[in-house]
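Re: folding output
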Amino acid sequence: LWGGETLAGSPGHWRRVGTFRPFRLVGGDRVAFEPWRSACSICWELGIDWGRHRPEFTDMQRAWQDASSTQRTSSVGRLFDAAAALLGLVESVTYDGQAPALVECAAGAVPDRSPLPLLGNAEIRIIDWAPLVLGLLNEETPVRERAAAFHATLAATILAEAQHQRSIDGTSSVGLTGGVFQNRPLTERAVALLESDGFEIVLHERIPPNDGGLSFGQAVEFAAKSTAA
């Protein structure tokens, strides 16, 4: 399941040039309502033992270790879910997007941060979310500061991706789309960084940035490819 993608091009001619490091999840659709599952998964990917307080810990870890029982994703929304659990805000929710909203509400003033590092030198840039996890687990720092740093690091990473693509093909326009851009601190910080570096920003106005806009995007893509043909 894709997520956290950097796409370059135009309708009918998109290229996938960057993505977030994938991780394995257990539980299917339940992961959207049980953020602790995402928290366990990303911690286990890093060799961190988190989640033993959960009664389902042993069974889930056994399932996670069996790759055939998991699904791989690079979703930033699931990283927000994990952040909510690791910050101690919530471990189970009643609707998809509730956990990320709590992380948004918990954040204080968004500071300056460095972008996330890359893994290897593959043709598609792979962004490593590991530093986010280490920051979220640092209980010596207040929750509001950890939540703010989480947003700030993601925004700085968006800028770094845009700068890299500009160095390759002269890109000057950046569109921000996907459910995470319903998040005000992330979007406002990303826009401020991009605009200060000379990029033109395209944001959603009439079509929602989350899954509600998928069918419209599919229609645009189909029309573009049909015209080209």
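--- second protein (sequence, then structure) ---
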Amino acid sequence: TKLTAVGARLFFVADDGIAGQQPFVSDGSPAGTRRITTIPNTGPVRGYLRATAFGSRCAWFMGSPGAQSVWISDGTAAGTVRVLEPEDLEEGEELLGTAPAILGANTPAPVMVFGTQILRGAAFLWRSDGTRSGTSRVTLPVRSWVNTFTALGDRARVLGIEQTAGGAFWTYLTVWDGI
């Protein structure tokens, strides 16, 4: 599941019967197909929520409510790191179901932007350069809920929705550079 092509490699999630669902990489040959690493269980129900190509690497959003994280891998165990830890999130904060946007996808230094939200509460935007120290929450360029991210070169289009006190909904489309 979660098949993600990155260059000439395919990243995917499979259950090898030993460690449960884990990330694998393949160059298309039996000898070039292997489990990347064993990612520890992140809660009572571990799940890979989505995956996306991130430059020459793959990013996985995973976890269960209250224990979500973001992992990035170059296809090796040493190059597989968690860039967002569950403790980086506030109580009740969850990764959005929306896929992240990759800014500058075809450059040597892409940036991933993604969102989180507290149920019926605040929304947050995050950016990551693919390292733990380079992953941080940033000022929200739109109001309230973030519905969609799309990338266009080095900018993200962010669709946000705000519900006013009177119950009306306002929709905002913002072009954002990830800063």
